[in-house]
């Protein structure tokens, strides 16, 4: 029987996975190793709105998003410490929009926007009344606190060789986001740079206009996030004035309510979305089937939106693969051996 699980990565993906593992009460220890800890991870730079966005494949993202929404409604929204708020969300279109989103079949509350929900100049829209947003820093703190309260341990430690964690544990979960590019040499991983502007609270709901560019207004508990950008293969972690100006111009185009002189800017943030042609969530049996590595990375622009659905999938994959795990022959020398 496997007793210990080691997770690499302390973003929203590693933490959600760790919390669900601990909740099963089936493991002696669930440990996280991470090079950087919150607030110094990509996750802390997110908006963070529940909305499937810039991630694939559509059918799985739809399913995981729906499961995540359900998990939030059952277990998180009623906890004020989680920093989560129920908010209507509208995606807007200048011209009538024929297609529904890929994920519509998964989300029961999806509907078309009513005329009175469309700002001037917009012809169509999507709406979700029971959408929600997270105050990102509050929510990340809540994830860390919840993980620790359940008995999880967090250690700041970089992994340079994927064989290293297997010295301590037969099951390792790879939640390294963009770090997977180096750690497991995944050439499909690339950054999609996102810049946001944080302003004093404005707007009663989340609004997006994403046909020709990235543009959103996301009100949260303590502030409102304006976005954004999606620059592929761009590693620049510094905010640029050009992006800030562009973001302010785009949100002002939604409604004069969001014109620059009405906004009080609190800060500007940049993060690199861990992009991949599709999310990698699959098991890999190593070392004569004595070690199990589960990959859970590449969530692009939807990490928060799919987090709990993906964590549940990790649990399922562990359950399915434990019967295939052979007793480990040796513990110590694996750094020498080829996986
Ligand atoms: C501007 C912006 C806005 C966004 N808005 C939203 C939104 O509204 N809704 C939404 O759902 N998503 C949003 N996202 C996307 C979301 O932030 C990501 O999908 C999510 O943060 C990915 O989480 P993660 O845990 O995989 O990665 P990360 O948060 O990057 O965590 C990765 C962890 O792995 C560790 N690590 C990496 N390599 C190693 C190694 N070799 N050894 C040890 N540790 C390692 C890191 O130190 C870190 O702890 C946004 C992103 C940006 C940039
Ligand atoms: C985050 O980074 C800052 C600046 O580099 C550093 O001072 C701080 O200690 C880091 N926080 C954590 C939790 O690692
Ligand atoms: C933010 O402001 C809007 C009005 O613009 C208001 O409806 C909403 O309740 C405010 N949200 C918070 C959390 O204060
Ligand atoms: C142990 C290990 O590195 N496994 C795999 C991780 O993912 C890459 C693909 O990106 C594989 O090539 C490795 O074999």
UniProtKB/TrEMBL annotation:
Domain FAD dependent oxidoreductase, first and last residues per copy: 4-314
Assigned keywords, A-Z: FAD, Flavoprotein, Membrane, Oxidoreductase, Transmembrane, Transmembrane helix
Cofactor(s) the protein needs: FAD
Binding site for FAD: 42-43, 47-49, 159, 176, 300-305
Ranges annotated as spanning the membrane: 6-22
GO cellular component: cytoplasm
Gene3D superfamilies found in the cross-reference section: D-Amino Acid Oxidase, subunit A, domain 2, NAD(P)-binding Rossmann-like Domain
Residues that, per the record, bind D-dopa: 216, 273, 301
Gene Ontology terms describing biological process: D-amino acid catabolic process
InterPro entries assigned to the protein according to its UniProt record, in alphabetical order: D-amino_acid_oxidase_CS (IPR006181), DAO (IPR023209), FAD-dep_OxRdtase (IPR006076)
SUPFAM superfamilies: FAD-linked reductases, C-terminal domain, Nucleotide-binding domain
GO MF annotation: an example: FAD binding
Protein family: Belongs to the DAMOX/DASOX family.
Identification of the protein by name: D-aspartate oxidase
Native source organism of the sequence: Tieghemostelium lacteum
Taxon lineage: Eukaryota, Amoebozoa, Evosea, Eumycetozoa, Dictyostelia
